[in-house]
Amino acid sequence: MVTQTLPAKRKQESSNGVTNKLSYTPTNLVKMLLEGKSYRDIADYYGKDVSTIHKNKAMKAYRKLLEHPEEIEAYLGNEAQILRVAAGKFLSRALDEEKLKKMSSRDAVVNTGILIDKYRLLSGQSTDNFALHVIIEKIERDEQKRRGGPQDVVDGTLEP
Predict the structure, then answer these.
(1) Cα pseudo-dihedral 120, 121, 123, 126, rounded to 10
(2) What percent of the chain has pLDDT over 70?
(3) Are 152 and 159 spatial neighbours (Cβ–Cβ below 8 Å)?
(4) Which of 96, 112, 137 is the last residue of a domain?
(5) Is residue 6 part of a domain?
(6) Residue 2 lies in a domain
(7) How distant, in Å, are the alpha carbons of 27, 59, 95, 98, 156 from that of 112?
(8) Closest residue by Cα to residue 30 from 73, 76, 65, 79
(9) Which domain holds residue 91?
(10) Which residue has the higher pLDDT, 80 or 132?
(11) Residues 119 and 141 occupy one common structural domain
C-alpha cells in the first residue's frame, strides 16, 4: 500500500489559542497573495498542487488585474461612484412593486432597517445614536441621584 504525505499546512492561531485553518476560498487565496505568500506557500498550506492554485478562477482574475494597474487605479479612484451605481441597480430591482408584494413582513422589516442604516451612514449619522442616547441619559440620572437631584418619569415609572 502506497501512502502519500501531504506538505505541512500553515495554520492560523486565533486569540483564544485555538488553531484554525483558513478555508479554501477565492477570497482567502487572494488575501494570501496580497500578504506576500507565493503560489508554493499557498499550495503547501492547502495541501494542493501549485498548478491547482494557478488554475483557480480568482487567481486568474487577480493576475489579470495585475496586468493592468491603470484599471485598478481607475476603479479605486471611482469606487464610491461605481458602487453607488451598482447599488442603484440592485435597489431599483428590489423595489419592483410585484416583488415587494411577495416579500414577507420579516424581510420588509430587515431590509428597511438595512436601508435606514445605510442612509444614516451615508449622511454622516451614527447608526448607534439611540444606544448612545440611552447611555447618556443613564449617566445623567446617576449623576442627579448622586447629587440628590429630581427624579424623572420614564415609561410610567419613577427613575432616579
Answers:
(1) 70
(2) 75
(3) yes
(4) 96
(5) no
(6) no
(7) 29, 36, 11, 17, 30
(8) 65
(9) 69-96
(10) 80
(11) yes
Q: Tell whether 84 is covered by a domain.
A: yes
pLDDT digits (tens, 9 = 90+) for 63-81: 777 777 787 788 778 888 8
Q: How many domains does the chain have?
A: 3
In a domain, 156, yes or no: no
Residues near 33 by beta carbon (within 8 Å), at least 6 away in sequence: 42, 59, 62
- Does residue 41 have a pLDDT over 90? yes
d(CA 147, CA 119): 40
* Residue at grid coordinates 446617576: 142
Do 80 and 116 sit in the same domain of this protein? no
Q: What is the pLDDT of residues 75-120, one digit of tens each?
A: 778 888 888 888 888 888 888 888 888 888 888 888 888 888 888 8
